[in-house]
Amino acid sequence: MYRFLIVIEKANKNYSAYSPDLPGCVATGKTVEETERNMHGAIEMHIAGMLEDGLPIPVSQSIAEYVAITMPTESAA
Which pTM value belongs to this model? Predict the structure, then answer.
């Protein structure tokens, strides 16, 4: 089994997704859920194509983390 990080971003009227470990593998959708499903299919096709071409399947190296920051309050001038 392979696991790949996907990044889903809000676009103007839809969502788009990509995987940092699979350059060129992208998908879109009207909702986050649709985009995730479409990306799953895109990754399956991408990997199948790589296997057909005899290319090695990359090992996922990407990680994701949220960073929380606290903004200093503006003092009244």
Answer: 0.83
